[in-house]
Automatic annotation (TrEMBL):
GO molecular function terms noted in the UniProt entry: hydrolase activity; metal ion binding
One GO term (biological process): small molecule metabolic process
Domain of life: Bacteria
Keywords tagged on the record: Hydrolase, Metal-binding
Family: Belongs to the FAH family.
Phosphoprotein listed as a keyword: no
Stored InterPro entries: FAH, Fumarylacetoacetase-like_C, Fumarylacetoacetase_C_sf
Ranges where the Fumarylacetoacetase-like C-terminal domain occurs: 73-276
Record organism: Spongiactinospora rosea
Protein name: Fumarylacetoacetate hydrolase
Pfam families assigned: FAA_hydrolase
C-alpha cells in the first residue's frame, strides 16, 4: 500500500492515480494525512479492500511530506560503517540520536533556501511509526512500523560544529532541511524490507549509493533501543542514518550551492527533487 499527502489531503496512490481517502471511505477517515496514524490498523484494513476505481491523475508538484506534523522526530548519526569511517569516528556501540525540529519538514519537490554556511546532503530511509512502541523487543520492531519514505537530512556543517559540543539539531533544522516523500510505502511492499537501495545525485552526478543492509542498527534495532527509553508515538518519524558520500568528507569538501539540483531516491518508494538557492 502506498499513501501520500496530496496538497494537504490523505490519498491512496494506485497505478491509476490518487484516491481521496475521505471521499472513498464515505467520511470514515478524514483528510488529514497526520491523523491517520492514530487509526493506522483500522485504516490499513479498510484500504486493502477499498474501491480505487475512481483514481485520478495527480500532479507530483503538489505532493507534500507524507508525515507533515510528527510529534517526535528521531535522527540517527553514524549508522553506516563507511560513513562513520569517512567522518573520522569509531563504529558506534549505541545509536547516536538527535532530533530535527518539525518546522524543518518540507515536501518531496521544490526549492530549499540556503543559509550562509556549509550545507551538506544526507540521503536517508525514513521509518514512520504506526503503533505505539514502548520497551519493544527488537524481534517485534517491524510490527510498529506504518511505512517507509525517502528523506534527506540536510545539514549546515557550520552551525552543526560552531561550538563544542556539536549542535546537531540546530544545524539540521533550517526551514526545508527535512524533506520527505514522495509517498509512504508499507513494509510488505518490499521484497526485502531490511535490504533496500538508496542514494542521491547532485546535478546528475551520483554522490551517495548504498543499501540499508549496511545499517549498523537496523530499523527494528532502533525501535528497540529508542523505545527502551521513551514511547514512540503513532506518526513519529525516524531518520535512520546516511551512508558514505557526504560533501564534508570529500577532498576537497563540497557543499550545496545556489542553483544545484539534488535528486534523492529509495528503491521501491520513488524520488525527491530539490533545487537550492
Amino acid at each position: 500500500m502506498r499513501i501520500a499527502n496530496l496538497d494537504g489531503r490523505l490519498v491512496l496512490i494506485t497505478d491509476g492515480g490518487a484516491v481521496d481517502a475521505e471521499q472513498a471511505s464515505g467520511g470514515a477517515f478524514g483528510p488529514d494525512p497526520q491523523a491517520v496514524f492514530e487509526r493506522w490498523a483500522e485504516f490499513t484494513a479498510w484500504a486493502r479492500g477499498a474501491d480505487v476505481s475512481q483514481a485520478q491523475p495527480y500532479d507530483v508538484a503538489v505532493l507534500r511530506a507524507p508525515v507533515p506534523q510528527p510529534r517526535q522526530i528521531f535522527a540517527i548519526g553514524l549508522n553506516y560503517r563507511e560513513h562513520a569511517i569517512e567522518s573520522g569516528f569509531d563504529i558506534p556501540q549505541h545509536p547516536v540520536v538527535f532530533t530535527k525540529f518539525a518546522s524543518s519538514i518540507t515536501g518531496p519537490t521544490g526549492r530549499i533556501a540556503l543559509p550562509d554556511g556549509k550545507v551538506d546532503w544526507e540521503v536517508e530511509l525514513v521509518a514512520v511509526i504506526g503503533a505505539r512502541a514502548y520497551q519493544v523487543d527488537e524481534a517485534k520492531g517491524w510490527d510498529h512500523v506504518a511505512g517507509l519514505t525517502v528523506g534527506q537530512d540536510i545539514s549546515d556543517r557550520l552551525t552543526q560544529f560552531i561550538a563544542p559540543p556539536p549542535q546537531f539539531s540546530m544545524g539540521k533544522s533550517f526551514p526545508g532541511f527535512a524533506p520527505m516523500g514522495p509517498v509512504l510505502v508499507t513494509p510488505e511492499e518490499f521484497d526485502d524490507r531490511d535490504d533496500i537501495a538508496l542514494g542521491c545525485t547532485l546535478n546528475g552526478e551520483p554522490v551517495q549509493d548504498a543499501r540499508t543492509s549496511d545499517l549498523i542498527f537496523s530499523i527494528p534495532a532502533l525501535i528497540a533501543r529508542l523505545s527502551a527509553v521513551l514511547p514512540l508515538l503513532p506518526g513519529d518519524v525516524i531518520f535512520t542514518g546516511t551512508p558514505s558520500g557526504v560533501g564534508q568528507s570529500r577532498t576537497p569538501a563540497r557543499f550545496l550551492a545556489s542553483g544545484d539540483e539534488l535528486v534523492t531516491w529509495v528503491d521501491g518508494i520513488g524520488e525527491m527533487r530539490h533545487t537550492f538557492g
